[in-house]
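Give me the fold.
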Amino acid sequence: MYWRASSEAFWATASSTPKMKPSAMYGLMRLENCAMAGIAVGIGFIVAGGLEAGIGIILAVVSAFLITGAGNTINDYYDRETDKKNAPQRPIPSGGISAKGAFYLAMALFGIGIVMSFFINYSCLALASFNSVVLFFYGRNLKSSVFVGNVAVSYLTASTFVYGALVLQNPVTTVFLALLAFLANVGREVIGDIEDVAGDKKAGIKTLAIRLGAKRAWCYGRTYIIAAVLLSPVPYLMNLLGFYYLAPVLVADTIFIASIITSNARLNQRLTKMGIFAGLVAFLLGAIL
């Protein structure tokens, strides 16, 4: 009798275990986005003067990879009802993973990423913990808020560079890279929302493009991109980066200016992406050469 009761209890527990297919887990994490976060951490490390890899930067790259995956996963968890209609192929609505399983996966990834950051230094621990909180609340609340969601995404993108620099406890130069990336990303996010007005209205998402109209949203977006262009010479003028920073940053600024001259939101998205890439090259060359 005891064996039978124990067996029944075991199978009851097993049947309630959250469903998790490996392919669905990878789909939730969006591995390409996780890899980009890891690369950004590496770039921040190099810009801060780290030319030799060690255990610190390895832990930073892996923890950023996992925390980014956690953020993408929790985002899908809170979008699961909307995805049933708009993206039924996503892992949760398609049945590849249960909602409970997705939530547990996100919490595990957040936890592992934060614990790894503890073994780097306290600065990395603080930033990893804070970013995890931002990612959680972005998925739950912030993405549907006017402008706040744009700022949160841009901050999270920019902060990965600082995270890499904090491995060396030398974030000064990288803070400028993060600031320029933040400003350009905010402008890009605001202008990008202009394309999605129809879908966002149906989904109840309140973007600046909906609240203020396309014309005024363009003005907001352009202001942030212009600010990035105006601040771009500062690292050279402060002797933080060398002469080889100037040519590629001039290319980046030219692309950014072209992106705000156009009135085509889709073209703006492509150009600002190119401009951000050119800016990354400028910081790398200025730091290394």
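Residues 20-170 form a domain with the Tetracycline Repressor; domain 2 fold (CATH 1.10.357.140).
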